[in-house]
Amino acid sequence: MALDPVVEQLIDTLNEQGLRSFEQMSVAEVREVIESFSELQAPKADLARVVDTVYPGPDGDQAVRLYIPESDAPLPVVVYIHGGGWVAGSLDVTEQPCRALAADARVIVAAVSYRLAPEHKFPAAPEDAFAALNWVVDNVADFGGDATRVAIMGDSAGGNLAAVTALRARDTGSPALCAQVLVYPVIDGTARFPSWEENAEGYLITAAAIGWFWEQYLATLEDAENPYASPAKAKSLAGLPPTLMLVNEYEVTRDECLNYGRMLTEQGVPVQVELYSGLVHGVYWMTGAVPRSAELHSAVVEFLGKQFAR
């Protein structure tokens, strides 16, 4: 399918404004540009409470923000890990999508921060993410959450960290997860599927930019073979929770996402893969600029409703 007309117009506008590819920027510039995605978002939903607190990470406290809708009964919980290439992103830039998810899915969304590269290389981010999940499970009852109904979710590099965290939870035997939601995750540091060439340039995130983000994140080339960096390298994926995989047609990482979905299915994990024609990386954060981002949001809400009702 052709590129979505709204997305095409947005890309043209950004190009006219002189937006460079991420690998051509400094780390500070990358962080500034990714924070600006909040300008592409819809108005924020109202909720009963938003609580800012911290969880104890391996290298000190990290921020966590709880989005809590009104409810008389304990609510299911979604631990959300933001994207940004492991280099950028924040609780602020993802506040609107997290509020929308909490309001529409009737869940508590616990958005967690983590140490960023290149100041903190692998395995800092996955260590923080796993600590955050355990803190949420141990403490969410204090905020009206149901610790027996917890899902993990992330987008882009956050999708990578969500997949890794689900692996670690399986490997250690706890905490139990009801589901994982992977929104166009970056899943394999060694992958070079056809989409790397087909979508190498012209769709916001270039192949060179993906490679640059991996270079900032990994401490050594050998780290790309570690399943806690590249989940597709795990010897087994059996026993992972039911999975929703959202993938866009014009993604550098499209084919590695689809391949991971096939791997999960082959190893007995219930998987729902949604491939969105005409869309590009990052649209989950573009709720005000790209109307079809609502399709991804609706798929997440519907999937979580089914999993939490089981």
From TrEMBL:
Annotated InterPro entries: AB_hydrolase_3 (IPR013094), AB_hydrolase_fold (IPR029058), Carboxylesterase_B_AS (IPR019826), GDXG_lipolytic_enzyme (IPR050300)
UniProt key word Hydrolase: yes
SUPFAM superfamilies for the chain: alpha/beta-Hydrolases (SSF53474)
Naturally occurring in which organism (per UniProt): Rhodococcus pyridinivorans
PANTHER family xref list: AB HYDROLASE SUPERFAMILY PROTEIN C4A8.06C, ALPHA_BETA HYDROLASE FOLD-3 DOMAIN-CONTAINING PROTEIN-RELATED
Limits of the Alpha/beta hydrolase fold-3 domain: 78-284
Signal peptide: none
UniProt keywords, alphabetically: Hydrolase
Protein name: Alpha/beta hydrolase
GO molecular function: hydrolase activity
Gene3D superfamilies: alpha/beta hydrolase
Keyword Heme: no
Homology family: Belongs to the 'GDXG' lipolytic enzyme family.
Superkingdom: Bacteria
